[in-house]
Design a protein that fits this description.
By secondary structure, this protein is an all-alpha fold. It contains eight helices and no strands.
């Protein structure tokens, strides 16, 4: 374990020095992990690859800000989430977020049937959501940001964040029902 930590420190040092072989090794080590995050935010694999490459560019240009006393995966994940938000702002800015209406309510839901789905199946369904719904859904449900944090990062109201999450969840339930014939209990 200590040798692995020592080797990783050397890899980070190589990246700090702009060593291309070190950067390539770091890219190879974290490609799959990074792609799994980017696929959740992207509409397809090509878009995810673009977000991932933007994220790695930020990693290599800001590697000096990484605190080696903390886990690299967490720092990398945060960079990829920010890269996803930046991508969304750049390419999906014309599509407005939906404000919570007076009859909408973000009610709790008990989902059954998820155990039988594969990761790729779930990613396919999430990728069918609109960019705004996909972004808020991932930030809240998977990356566990609060609606207040989401509102601040996306420059929207807390109500808009809640509304987009609620509508994303309902749309995702519909997609799952149609594609996988899952029975989802929406009675809370």
């Amino acid at each position: 374990m200590e040798k692995r930590t020592q080797n990783f420190s050397l890899l980070i040092k190589a990246c700090l020095n702009g060593n291309k072989a070190g950067q390539r090794k770091l890219y190879q080590l974290f490609y799959s992990y990074g792609m799994s995050i980017c696929l959740r935010y992207a509409a397809n694999k090509s878009e995810a690859q673009e977000i991932l490459n933007d994220g790695f560019f930020k990693v290599f240009t800001k590697i000096g800000q990484y605190d080696q006393q903390k886990p690299f995966k967490h720092w990398f994940r945060v960079i990829l989430i920010h890269a996803s938000i930046d991508y969304h702002r750049k390419y999906h800015k014309l599509e407005p977020f939906v404000e919570l209406g007076p009859t909408d309510s973000p009610d709790p839901v008990l989902n059954q049937g998820w155990d039988h789905l594969l990761f790729d199946d779930v990613m396919d369904c999430i990728q069918q959501l609109s960019p705004q719904y996909r972004l808020v859904f991932n930030l809240f449900a998977i990356d566990e940001l609060t609606h207040k944090e989401i509102a601040e990062r996306l420059d929207i109201s807390i109500g808009t964040s809640k509304s987009n999450f609620s509508k994303a969840r309902k749309k995702l339930q519909k997609i799952l029902r149609e594609n996988y014939h899952l029975k989802l209990n929406t009675n809370g």
